[in-house]
Fold these 3 entries.
Entry 1:
Amino acid sequence: MSDDLDELYQQVILDHCKTPRNFRVLEGANRKGEGYNPLCGDNYTVFMKMDGDVVKDITFQGSGCCISKASASLLTDSVKGKSKSEVKELFKKVHDMMTTGHVDDEGVGKLAVFAGVHKFPARVKCAILSWHAAVAAVDGQDGPVSTENESN
């Protein structure tokens, strides 16, 4: 990846960290996913309003490092309007991208800023935490999810 592209990606991540989008409790949420990274203390709750199988609105609340907060912010922008199966498919693409650096040009869009995370295996858990919580929420899973079982 070029230095200019690395710098652009860093700017996007810092922007979403300093001014996260959809950072609030969602009134009237009918789904909730909780994510916790015991190694670094990142802790986020993802709130969703689902209409049938479609994510009508999504927000998040919690605390963590800049990578985890930026990832949650971009996640909320990326899954609004998507169906449960589309959210799960996007999770697979994002997870693959974060663990391998391979960017699937079909469907990741702005999320490509996290492709470089694979170079820092300890940070993959930070970046993917809110995604695990979002998948738990669309599945209606109770209880918090953890990055302890994450292979990277």
Entry 2:
Amino acid sequence: MNGLKLQDRLYLGLGRAARYAGRSADAFRPNGPFAPLDPINRFLRLPATFVSAKGNEARTIIFGEALCQGIFDGSYTRVGDYLVMSTGTFFVASQYPLLPILCVRTNRTISVSRPNMQSATATNPYGGYTPVNSTVVMTGWPASVLGENRSSASDAKLPGDQAVPYWAVLLPAPKGIILSPGDIITDDLGRTAVISGSELSDLGWRIDAKMATT
């Protein structure tokens, strides 16, 4: 063990801690923008546990909190990997040497599509968005989808209109995929939202989306 680098010794220590306090997790490495949890993408099973990113095991994760610290042997993982266990699904957002491994707890599975531009003027029977008239960008991605503390009024401005909520979405950034305002998000509950702002960072995508209503 004396011949190991400091980073390797740190990961080894985290792996030992996870064996005592954690549970078995399946690790997946997405290969492309579709179905990241396809069985073919599974590459490892390892013990893991997760604690609040703002404290330790004495501080539990609270409502509206998606970030957590991963306690597992990071020698085998990298940013963008998913860890799936009985208590939830997480993705690795940050894994810098000698720093805690930052992970995101996911609660929804989303897909993203991009509406296509109409190819003709004044001759289309319908000019709005339809699933057929769109390009699929990503499918089947576990993500953190939490409600933001803001909303907007419906454009219809009818007396019975409900406020339109916004989502805060965190998900990994697959190589070569750019998410832009106007892209359509659908989740496993059948809800739809339109991306109003997207930020690509070292931690992955951080997205603001306005829920679509009829």
Entry 3:
Amino acid sequence: MYTKCPECKKTHTLTLPQLRASKGILRCRNCSVMFNALEYISETSDAYIAENLSSQHLPWDKPNEPDNTFWGLGVLLAILLLVVQIIYFEGYAFSQNSRFRPGLEKICHYFDCKLPAYKNPDEFAVLHGSFNPLPDHSYEFKAIITNQATFTQALPNITLNLLDYNGKRFTHRVFRPQDYLPEATAATELASGATTEIRLLIAAPKTGIGGYTFDITY
């Protein structure tokens, strides 16, 4: 290898041990100028490279290869954190979505976990409803509902509204499953396509009853 003094243009022979020992800084034997030999290094004595080699790799330099281990680990942790946040904040909403529910049930079956009970009052159909007076002046409310959802649903609440003779609601009450289920029934869910009967005894209010409505809610 060769280098050339930038001051007097004298060509000098270079060796690797010489470069290592001087760290690339040489003194010109002709004009005594100190210069960076690497900036003017050449493979031939009649030409030289007049450019800064700080951006080039010399034969004895070790290539700097980026270590992607920590980068990959960071990306993995970020993805896991995102999944945990989605499950924490949106997990219940996903479990109540009919599009995602089948896939989530398969995942839970694999990991032996349990999803929150499916609740969609719009997927209950009312097959029968009545509100009739009894001989003791109380009333009996009856309703038959069926679960039209693809999934088992939690039994709903029944909101019974009593109307006066002008059709205005003057009172209401929310009945939970434990209020209308028989005492011997321990089930709190209704399978897909299944039907259940609701029966409630209502004490006669002081206001005359002109009608009734009821809502299926949670």
